[in-house]
Design brief:
The complex is a heterodimer of chains A (252) and B (201). Chain A has helices at residues 12-15, 18-33, 38-54, 59-83, 99-122, 128-137, 142-171, 180-210, 227-247; strands at residues 88-92, 95-98. Chain A is mainly α and 252 residues long. Classes of the chains: A mainly alpha (252), B mainly alpha (201).
């Protein structure tokens, strides 16, 4: 199962310290999510798109991701202009389009796309393991980091178990439909998946104990902040502050 | 079952983050070192299972499985769901980073409620009662989750009330399908691996 579609590449985003990217993206996402002024949101979207373009990613795959995100946004456009109370700018029998609704839908569209493009450009360009490693250094609770590590490590293993079970169902001519037989079969498939996951986790724990696990993971290599990383952190911090400044009118 | 980035307002995002943070802290405190691999690999299984689509009438829906997550993990559903949602946000851009708190709470809270209400039924060893406990946990968790999503949307903006109601209502057929599925799934586990439900052999 290939999950990290954008993690391989040669751009400076791929080389950057994951801690810098996590911190910068968190600040950017929070500021963008609570903004609602058009200039601030346009700048945020510009920054997000820039991060994707400079990361030299497969634009086709990026497009598919954005399409999925925007189907929900499109759904909102079908509702918000009509259901948000406010000044009526166009009406047709019982349907009335309100200015506030249009503004809200536009703001949400810009925000969603700004944050999603930035997360593909920044976080998508790191492998999950390096992000987990980064989390350790950002002082996340140890157990949560372990949970992340093991969960991600075993997704592909459990997925293979799942494919095996699906194959054996196909061999027996299973065909899905809306009926009791289908639900029962899927339920037993899931049950088997949970049972096997549980048994595997017991073996993992026994193997850990056997090797003297005492509750800590020792990290052998550490990140080093290079000059370029500090520089990137400073620039991204400044640009996020600029979005905030446009939002709260510090510039006027 | 998640709300995407950029839709909710700051107070809702903050409230969600605080509530989810509290739940995750309690869940982690209850987690012994030997539970870590178990919760983690079960989280991988929930992640894989959530990619499965089952037919519900003319359309197909992907599985949510909050009910069974709650029955198996109790309070530890909070950290488990947080990890799953974070991975989905990082890998597929489903949900999002700023909405992690709200989305975690909207799914983990129903899971916890179902654990408290129906875990005793599921542990009863009476086949019909076990199935019914699973069915109720599966169905109620989806309904409760839909209501929480509708409430988070409505609390953000009045214009969302209709969208939220529609989302909550469209969850009803999914709730029935998940209920039936969870009922059979729990019956299976109670026969094959009762330890998984916290029972002695």
């Amino acid at each position: 199962m290939h999950l990290e579609e954008f993690a391989e590449g040669k751009s400076f985003w791929h080389r950057m310290d994951p801690r810098v990217k996590v911190l910068a993206l968190t600040a950017f996402a929070v500021v963008t999510a609570i903004s609602d002024h058009l200039p601030a949101l346009l700048l945020a979207l510009g920054l997000g798109v820039t991060s994707i373009l400079t990361a030299k990613l497969d634009m086709k795959k990026v497009g598919v991701r954005l399409l999925v995100v925007n189907t929900f946004v499109l759904f909102l456009w079908l509702f918000l202009p009509f259901t948000t109370p406010g000044e009526v700018i166009w009406s047709f029998s019982f349907l009335t389009v309100k200015r506030e609704g249009l503004e809200l839908a536009l703001a949400i569209t810009l925000k969603t796309n700004a944050i999603v493009t930035a997360s593909i450009g920044l976080i998508g360009t790191s492998s999950v393991f390096s992000l987990v490693h980064g989390m350790t250094h950002l002082k996340m609770p140890e157990k949560l980091v372990h949970l992340f590590f093991f969960c991600y490590r075993y997704i592909s293993v459990i997925h293979e178990e799942y494919l095996l079970l699906r194959t054996s169902m196909r061999v027996r001519s299973f065909k899905a439909g809306t009926n009791m037989h289908t639900y029962k079969t899927f339920a037993y498939l899931l049950g088997m998946l949970f049972v096997r996951s549980y048994e595997r986790s017991q073996r993992i724990y026994q193997a850990m104990v056997l090797r003297g696990f005492n509750g800590t993971f020792y990290t052998l290599d550490h990140f080093h902040m290079r000059g370029s990383d500090w520089c990137a952190l400073f620039i991204m911090g400044f640009l996020t502050a600029l979005v905030g400044a446009l939002q709260w009118g510090v510039l006027n | 079952m998640h709300i995407s980035e950029g839709v909710l307002t700051a107070p809702v995002l903050i409230a969600g983050a605080l509530l989810a943070g509290g739940g995750v802290a309690i869940g982690l405190a209850k987690m012994r070192p030997k539970d870590v691999p178990e919760v983690a690999v079960l989280s991988s299984a929930f992640f894989v299972a959530s990619l499965i689509h089952i037919p519900v009438g003319p359309v197909s829906s992907h599985l949510v499985l909050i009910g069974i997550t709650g029955l198996l993990l109790g309070w530890m559903a909070f950290p488990s769901i947080l990890v799953g949602l974070t991975l989905q946000a990082i890998l597929f851009q489903y949900g999002g980073l700023t909405t992690l708190g709200v989305n975690t709470f909207n799914m983990a809270f129903p899971a916890l409620v179902c654990h408290m209400l129906f875990a005793p039924m599921v542990k009863s060893r009476l086949p019909r009662k076990v199935w019914l406990g699973g069915f109720l946990a599966g169905a109620l968790s989806i309904i409760l989750g839909g209501i929480l999503i509708a409430l988070s949307l409505a609390a953000s903006n009045e214009g969302f009330v209709e969208v939220g109601t529609l989302i909550a209502a469209s969850n009803l057929p999914i709730a029935i399908a998940e209920g039936i599925l969870t009922g059979f799934c729990v019956s299976f586990i109670s026969k094959v691996k009762p330890e998984l439900l916290g029972m002695k052999r």
